[in-house]
Amino acid sequence: MKKQTFRPSPDALLNPRYDANFKAIFTEDSDEGRLALKSFLQAILNTEVSDIQLIQNELPIEAEYDKQSVFDISCMLDGNRPVNIEIQGLNIDNAYDRRAEYQAAHLLNHSVKRGMNWRDMPEVYQVSVLNFIYDRDSDNGVSVYTMRTEDGRTLSRRMAIVFVELPKYKGSVERVENLTAAEKWCKFLLYADDSARRSLVSEICKSDGGIMAASGILTKISQDDINWSRQTSIDLWERDQLSTKNYIEELTQKLAEKTAESQAALAEKDALLREIELLRAELANKKQRENYNVR
User: Fold this and answer.
1) Count of CB atoms within 10 A of residue 197's CB?
2) By the 8 A CB rule, do 43 and 25 touch?
3) 3-class SS string, the chain
4) Residue 125's closest CA among 144, 97, 99?
5) Chain centre distance of CA 193
6) Which tops the pLDDT comparison, 43 or 7?
7) Percent of the chain with pLDDT over 90
8) Which one of 63, 129, 224, 265 is most buried, counting C-beta atoms within 10 A?
9) CA-to-CA distance for 160 and 126, rounded, in angstroms?
10) What is the mean pLDDT of residues 124-132?
């Protein structure tokens, strides 16, 4: 009897853009996991990293009313630069930017130890890998947000929010060797589970040891049917969320159209009433003139 499985085919790979799979790739306690995480952050942050350590990814609640911050991946670069990495598939309520600011501020707050000199305050990075387009006015796939004045002068640069917008990296590739490190990683995350892009993904993996390590981990976790079951559940949830969002947007659009129609009808009614009043006034004036002529 054939064993039932959620895996669509023996060589199918899990979607690395799903939260659990993404986290599994970069938090595996192995040389491959550490290499993948180091390579990814060096590419996205455009900085050299000599040492990287995973740290507790759940910050304590300061008060009963405080929001609990659970990070996808939290690590320390070179012993003094805390980084939180999130993977996000939906921009629920169009408020992900606020969530990212909260996460970055929370991370900075808990990185400043009691008695620390202000000059020793570390740089913290909130890295958000987005499977949606956040900024449609820019073609940049990786954007770094810091506190600045209106004319562009920075404050202390202690807090950086980095958005990686994966959909901006979709498209064909002429030569893999012409891709930047960040582009290679984004292409891998976009197409690792796409059987039609296997040749491209294989070429990208051969060009970057960190991505090769990530691919190996993804291949390994794809052998476990539990991971496919989890991915199916997440997929159904995201589809439900998207369907609900689209339904609400459709109802909102219909309401706006009905409101516009009602406003147009009221405006037309007001115009007719004004026209009637003008006609009444004109008739009254005409009658008054006629009465005057009779006299």
Assistant:
1) 17
2) no
3) CCCCCCCCCCCCCCCCCCHHHHHHHHHCCCHHHHHHHHHHHHHHHCCCCCCEEECCCECCCCCCCCCCCECCEEEEECCCEEEEEEEECCCHHHCHHHHHHHHHHHHHHCCCCCCCCHHHCCCEEEEEEECCCCCCCCCCCEEEECCECCCCCECCCCEEEEEEEHHHHCCCCCCHHHCCHHHHHHHHHHHCCCHHHHHHHHHHHHHCHHHHHHHHHHHHHCCCHHHHHHHHHHHHHHHHHHHHHHHHHHHHHHHHHHHHHHHHHHHHHHHHHHHHHHHHHHHHHHHHHHHHHHC
4) 144
5) 20
6) 43
7) 62
8) 129
9) 6
10) 96
Tens digits of per-residue pLDDT, 60-104? 444 444 554 555 899 999 999 999 999 998 887 788 999 999 999
For residues 13-26, give the mean pLDDT: 94
Q: Radius of gyration over alpha carbons of the chain, in Å? A: 29
Q: What are the backbone angles phi and psi of residue 10, rounded to the nearest 5°?
A: -60, -30
Structure token digits, residue 241 = 């969320």
Closest alpha carbon to 108 in 97, 120, 119, 124: 124
Both tokens of residue 184? 């290679």
How, if at all, do strands 81-88 and 73-77 pair?
antiparallel
Structure tokens given for 101: 């600011």
| Residue appearing with tokens 């180091």 | 38
Give the bridge partners for 126, in sequence order: 84, 161
